Amino acid sequence: MVSAETLRLLADIGFMATSGGFSAQASSLFKAVELARPDSVLPHIGFALNHMNMNRHQEALEILEKKALKLEPDNATVKAFIGMALMMLGRNSESERTLNQITTSDDILAATLAANLLTELQQHANKKSSPGLH
């Protein structure tokens, strides 16, 4: 049996790989984590982030909703990434509703992620509504 610490390390390496543009390698790492712990949301969050980094936002949203949320319906981190995927899809009002629910979560990392994404949504909305310079 693989220890939880080792799986977390593999997942972290996968997150670094996807953010560095190594999608195939990240996917392999997340598959390994999924095989070792099929009841964990971690590989599904990784797969979703990998898809977002490849501009495949709808697929990321489907992974989060159909796989990760099914495993842990109340997981604030999963919901924060759902909010991110919705934002990337331009579904800003849905994203805002989702993220607002998480900002008061006991999960400090998820609440912080949600707050940061809400700030980004607001900044984007402000840019769209402000008149351009002529």
Automatic annotation (TrEMBL):
<protein>
    <submittedName>
        <fullName>Tetratricopeptide repeat protein</fullName>
    </submittedName>
</protein>
<dbReference type="Pfam" id="PF14559">
    <property type="entry name" value="TPR_19"/>
</dbReference>
<dbReference type="InterPro" id="IPR011990">
    <property type="entry name" value="TPR-like_helical_dom_sf"/>
</dbReference>
